[in-house]
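The protein record minuted underneath.
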Amino acid sequence: MGQNQLGKRINAVRKDRGLTSDKLSELCNINATYLRQIEGGTKMPSLPVFIDICKALRISPDYLLQDELTENEISTIREVEKLWKDAPPQKQELVLTMIKAVLEHTEQ
């Protein structure tokens, strides 16, 4: 994704949330000029700033980075999420136990 796409998404979400660039920059502890540069596509935020922006906007990083993630990564995560949400609590516990067992087994 180009810096411009990321900036446009941040700008759109900020406006949708009813925040000014000054308010968002204050919430993220960054200079308002720097935020406008990010939104305008002339600057790329550092990882800590990116995380602060996501938190302040209450948006998931994958939404802002959707052009960077391959469809396989996104679709797999969404498929797992849908399966998890559709499963009753008992099955969620079983799945979590199975995942932990597999991860522990592969670490050995």
